[in-house]
Amino acid sequence: MYDRSLLGKPSKCAWNVASAYLKSAVPRDGAVPGASMAKHTRGDFLNYNSHVHAIITDGCFPPDNSFVGVTGLHAEDPEELFQYEVLKMLKKEGKINDAIPSIAPGELTSKQFRRSRARLIQKIFEVDPLCCPNCGHQMRVISILEAGPIVKKILGHRDLWDVRNHDPPSEQDSHTRELVSDDSDSQVPRYEYWD
Hints:
Layout: H1 9-25, E1 35-42, E2 48-56, E3 59-60, E4 68-69, H2 79-92, H3 110-125, H4 148-157
Antiparallel strand pairs: 1-2, 3-4
């Protein structure tokens, strides 16, 4: 999502789905769920990954300020609704159309499929996997290896296998500090006050 004006819209889509899902489970008029949502644009590796963090109540608040909990909720239930809401929003914003995307149709040759896979990797991770990091020339996929021992042997031969396993530090090496609590300037009454 490179159009930054759309960053808040997935949160709105998530709220629409969560609200409708929870309201349908609580049979009272005017019941409203609660939620706190935050949009994020970076993933674990600081790559671009637009996503929403949400804390949502497992029920609704009716107009009488009580809380009606709902049991048997599953996060997978509204997943397709959220996907639909996001696609509907992207279509409304003119970012997609009604064409049905196809990742790898069955009539692709193996060479076309490998190129399609490399294109998807480039699109997702913003790096061209077929560009040589040394000279910048275009590389080609010869084969895909998935057997762990063979991959380890090849990478070990090239000095590229670097597994950094080590034992945890011994107890004598650990530098734990003693925690000292000084509440002499605290304005909160001491525990004994509340008895």
